[in-house]
Design brief:
By secondary structure, the protein is α/β, with parallel strands linked by helices. The protein has helices at 42-48, 53-56, 101-104, 153-156, 162-172, 188-199, 214-220, 231-235, 255-258, 281-285, 299-312, 326-334; strands spanning 2-9, 16-23, 30-40, 68-75, 87-90, 93-95, 115-116, 136-140, 145-146, 180-184, 203-208, 224-227, 241-246, 261-269, 290-293, 318-322, 341-345. It folds into 2 domains: 2-161 and 316-351, Medium-chain alcohol dehydrogenases, catalytic domain (Quinone Oxidoreductase, Chain A, domain 1), CATH 3.90.180.10; 163-293, 3-Layer(aba) Sandwich (Rossmann fold), CATH 3.40.50.720. The protein contains 12 helices and 17 strands. The strands form 4 sheets. Strands 3, 4, 5, 8, 9, 16 and 17 form a 7-stranded mixed beta sheet that branches. A 6-stranded parallel beta sheet has the order 12-11-10-13-14-15, with helices on one face. Strands 1-2 form a two-stranded antiparallel sheet. Helix 5 crosses helix 11. The protein binds NADP nicotinamide-adenine-dinucleotide phosphate and zinc ion (ZN).
Length: 352
């Protein structure tokens, strides 16, 4: 076992603090990665504070972080895809059975044996998997992604979760030129959704509760911005959308957005608020609308997304922070005060 520095939370009420954790010795298919940047996802906060206790309770201590970018420092004897010094990424998944129908269909995220990067049972060391707020990680090569060489690494890290989580449903629901697409919530996921929907050629409308984000929304690629708390502004878009992606992390009225869909329109939830959202069946009945969800994306699609970002020069807009500011970053995230993703410079962990 190798000891590595990390930041962990000891309980739902504890702040994150410096810790030392174990990583396994590399197995023959393993890649050892020195972590350079790790994005801060709202899921990290939900998990650290055990807000999803009904669905997947948190085991403590928890080391969050599933937007990992780093450099390969060692590989196992049977590794064929990567070598020392390669720039790589790791997202939310680190293992799956590779044989079930979901894995066969390149959707490892739905594998019943899927292992998330943190807070999943760890079959190697016991306990739970520990995430990217750490100096290094060891991952099976099939769950490691190639990172394009031409992109800013701090801004690449968030692509591993926020990027794929928005890219995948936009592709699945056929967002292309000529479609009117809404993005609800301009945070980490939302701002990537805007960039992708714009790059796919759609007419993009951002719904935000933050007046201070209007200019940024337009700069990021929105064609229109709606203050979602203004009923008149909302009413202007009634029945007009092909697709709406809802990235909101907290309690909100999803029916207000379903009403904005046109015939056969779809609203996909990627936001995962703590409490269930009430849905009006009438909002769906008229217009044969549908409501669905989406969870990150498979490994092959994540690679496709990274390659797309490399070709189109797309990265996340980040505020780089040292790990020592992580608790403050969580508080700012709760106030929707992130422009538009925190990315932790892991070199800061060396000071611990
Ligand atoms: P984030 O950066 O905090 O962004 C969330 C945005 O939602 C905020 O910036 C804000 O946008 C809006 N918002 C927050 N509170 C609100 C409220 N009470 N009413 C209306 N709007 C509100 O979070 P994130 O990292 O993008 O994650 C968003 C959600 O997606 C989280 O629940 C996260 O766990 C989930 N997630 C899901 C997946 C998946 O695979 N499905 C993957 C990653 C994350 P405005 O300021 O523009 O209003
Ligand atoms: Zn995430």
């Amino acid at each position: 076992m190798n000891k590595t520095k990390a930041y962990s939370a000891a309980s739902a009420k504890s702040p994150l603090a410096s810790d030392t954790i174990n990583r396994r010795e590399i197995l023959e298919k393993d890649v050892q990665i020195e972590i350079l940047f790790c994005g801060v996802c709202h899921s990290d906060l939900h998990t650290a504070r055990n807000e999803w206790s009904d669905i997947m309770a948190t085991t403590y201590p928890v080391v969050p972080g599933h937007e990992i970018v780093g450099k390969v420092t060692a590989v196992g004897s049977a590794v064929t895809k990567y070598g020392q010094g390669d720039l790589v990424g790791v997202g939310c998944l680190v293992d799956s059975d590779q044989t079930c129908p979901s894995c066969e269909a390149n959707m490892e995220q739905f594998c019943p044996e899927g292992v998330f990067t943190y807070n999943s049972p760890d079959k190697h060391l016991g306990g739970v998997t520990l995430g990217g707020y750490s100096e290094s990680i060891v991952v099976d090569e099939n769950f490691v992604l190639k990172v394009p060489e031409n992109l800013d690494l701090a801004g690449v890290a968030p692509l591993l979760c926020a990027g794929i989580t928005t890219y995948s449903p936009l592709r699945h629901w056929g967002v292309t030129k000529g479609k009117k697409v809404g993005i609800v919530g301009l945070g980490g996921l939302g701002h990537m959704g805007v960039k992708f929907a714009n790059a796919f050629g759609a007419h993009v409308v951002v719904f935000t509760t933050s007046d201070s984000k209007v200019e940024d929304a337009l700069r990021l690629g929105a064609h229109e911005v709606v203050n979602s708390r203004n009923a008149e502004e909302m009413a202007k878009h009634m029945g007009s959308f092909d697709f709406i992606l809802d990235t909101v992390s907290a309690d909100h009225d999803v029916n207000a957005y379903i009403q904005l869909l046109g015939l056969d329109g779809n609203l996909t939830l990627v936001g995962a608020p703590e409490k269930p959202l009430p849905v009006s069946s009438f909002a769906l009945l008229f217009g044969r609308k549908s409501l669905s969800g989406s969870l990150i994306g498979g490994i092959a699609e994540t690679q496709e997304m990274l390659d797309f970002c490399g070709e189109h020069g797309i990265t996340s807009d980040v505020e780089v922070i040292p790990i020592q500011q992580i608790n403050e970053a969580y508080e700012r995230m709760l106030k929707s005060d992130v422009k538009y993703r925190f990315s932790i410079d892991m070199a800061s962990l060396k000071n611990e």
